[in-house]
Amino acid sequence: MPGIRAPVNYSEEPDRHPALKINAKQPFNAEPPRQALVSSYVTPTEFFYKRSHGPIPVVDDLERYSVSFNGLIEKPKELFMKDIMSLPKYNVTATLQCAGNRRTAMSKSRTVRGVGWDVAALGNAIWGGAKLADVLELVGIPKLTSTTPLGGKHVEFVSVDRCKEENGGPYKASIPLSQATNPEADVLLAYEMNGETLNRDHGYPLRVVVPGVIGARSVKWLDSINIDSQICQGFFMQKDYKMFPPSVNWDNIDWSTRRPQMDFPVQSAICSLEDVNVGKYGKIAIKGYAVSGGGRGIERVDISADGGKTWKEASRYQKPGIQYVTDDEKSDKWAWVLFEAEADVHSNTEIVAKAIDTAANVQPEKVEDVWNLRGILNTSWHRVQVQVRHSNM
Fold first, then answer.
1. N or C: fewer beta carbons within 10 Å in the chain?
2. Which parts of the sequence belong to the Oxidoreductase molybdopterin-binding domain (predicted)?
């Protein structure tokens, strides 16, 4: 398309922070160290996880770059950056999380397929851009529309990004039209991240941000938007990112029996400790994140210092100095909550975290209960082993 292109190889990749833990080099997939992840409420852009399916697109001419609107609308339209930037700008603080976050822990139960993410395949950013509901009005679709006069019920986002899963075609995904046209859903066509122009890894010049939903639906490097009567038929909606029971394997899988995953379940992870942590006898600090999909807040984070026999509640916060209260107007409903607790450890033990959201959804205890062949949505209790070293002092 004019102004932006998908390179045929990896010779034009952007620079990345050297502290990132690389899970795959081509295409580039990486996450920050877990302790760095929770050092701030807003994740610095360089520490925000990187997820790509091919070479990172290159913008050659921003003025020529445009997004085309097609499908079940009265007449196709083309919008340039100046058109989108002329609309009211909104800043939405939202956590994006890869559906495969914590896949490595799931693979220890039984082998799964996918990028081996630890606990940091997510990040919390301030996204700046136009609301998709405002943009769709420019092409003749009013707010709070669930079906267009021509029968459109879904909004498909098509990327410039080319990937092998689509046989060299573009990455694509869709959301319901009712969500796209609802201003309260805060779906953005974003051109800023943390107050700066999007960088190439995160979708420059324009990306979709769908808060509360797995990251796979927040399509980067936007090429076109199609209004369709059915859910996107692309690989990542039809043959991936679906939640199957533990009994399903690659020999008996029927992809058509499951809907594409959208909202993320309630999730938490301890980030101040590694999987096996050697510490001194006495008090240790426990810090991490908790987040739920669909705009549901975090009602509680429970911490156990004895493998889940007894529990105590952690303190929760978002912005420093402001008490976090679920559903309060000062709280960011699409964003994670950070938690802190202290444990008195006198012998080798397992420290556990589990979160509860405002709908009283609780993380499942065992990874075996949520195991699935693609290794997505590992929301089981997060556990770290602590080995105590007795000091000679």
1. C
2. 53-235
Dig out the tokens for 298 from the structure: 């975090």
3-state secondary structure 183-205: HHHCCEEEEEECCEECCHHHCCC
Give residue-wise pLDDT tens across range 177-206.
999 999 999 999 999 999 999 999 999 999
DSSP class of residue 256 equals G
Best CATH choice for the domain 267-388 from the list 3.40.640.10, 2.60.40.650, 3.80.30.20, 2.160.10.10: 2.60.40.650
pLDDT tens for 295-313 read: 999 999 999 999 999 999 9
Taking the C-alpha atoms of residue 353 and residue 113, their distance in angstroms, rounded to an integer, is 26
Residues 333 and 330: their CA atoms lie apart, in Å, by 9
Measured from the Cβ of residue 315, the count of other Cβ atoms closer than 10 Å reads 12
Residue 352 pairs with which residues in a beta bridge? 304, 383
pLDDT classification of 248: cutoffs 50, 70, 90: very high
The rounded distance, in Å, linking the Cα atoms of 260 and 237 is 6
Q: Look up residue 204 and give its two tokens.
A: 């420059």
Average pLDDT over residues 78-96: 98
Model's pTM, two decimal places? 0.97
